[in-house]
Amino acid sequence: MQFYLDFEKPLVELEQKITELREYSTDRVNFGGEIRKLEKKAEKLRKEIFSNLSRWQLTQLARHVNRPFTLDFVSHIFTDWFEVHGDRLYRDDPALVCGFARFDGEPCAVIGHQKGRDTKEKVRRNFAMPNPEGYRKALRVMKMAEQFGLPVFTFVDTPGAFPGIGAEERGQAEAIARNLREMASLKVPVIVTVTGEGGSGGALAIAVGNRVLMMEYSVYSVISPEGCAAILWKDGSKGDVAAEALKLTARDIDKLGCIIDDVIPEPLGGAHGDHAAAAAQVKIFLQKHLEELRSLSGDELVEQRYAKLRGMSFFDE
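and the corresponding structure tokens:
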């Protein structure tokens, strides 16, 4: 599905010209020289655009409809994927996909938010906003992983937990709180990767990890820029102003030095342009951090996670 953001338009137009010239090229009429010139121009333009993005533009990029979602990472990074459905209490929640797979041949658990690309799939996945049964399903899989000593990989990409009446009636807040508590005490390695949007408690409910990584063009915040603007200025259209105040980009959060452990570089132009290359980068970082965590015992993993969380706060006496 062709989709591009406003700031990508000049680049898209240039790439369309290159495509047209390739189609018109024949043995008798060769546009090779022109194509090479335009390709160099496109490369230069791509570097200029993506090295000067505002926080609001980065937020839009994190939400790009063609950005790789959890199941895309599963197909590129893991093998022998087996999805688990339902929380054994109410129903299945397609907004969160959970299951077991193999990472470099070793069994593991994989959990992540799943968005849709067309309208039908977006509605089915509830725009990646989980209900409480989604979080209970995720906890069920995490507990199974702990029972069998399997590492847990989570992929965060949600605007937030679903705020509907039904979700509240079925214990949305309790489900999120329980996940936070239980994840903190898991005696297996937990590696969290923010791949798109990391929105509020909806993200945190699967984001308590020994390692927390962010992709270069992802965002992570307590509230969406539009929600923040609606509260502060009673005007949700001021999302761009709120994004600057929230400082929600991977670059901003990495500067804090205590929230995340690594920023994963993306292909020039963003992960939405090359899923395979983006997934290859993610895999390198997952391998690196899993190798570091393998040497820790279950109790040491819990203590390391505890120290990491405590390190996010500063106290004055």
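(Above: one complete record from the training split.) The mean pLDDT is 92.
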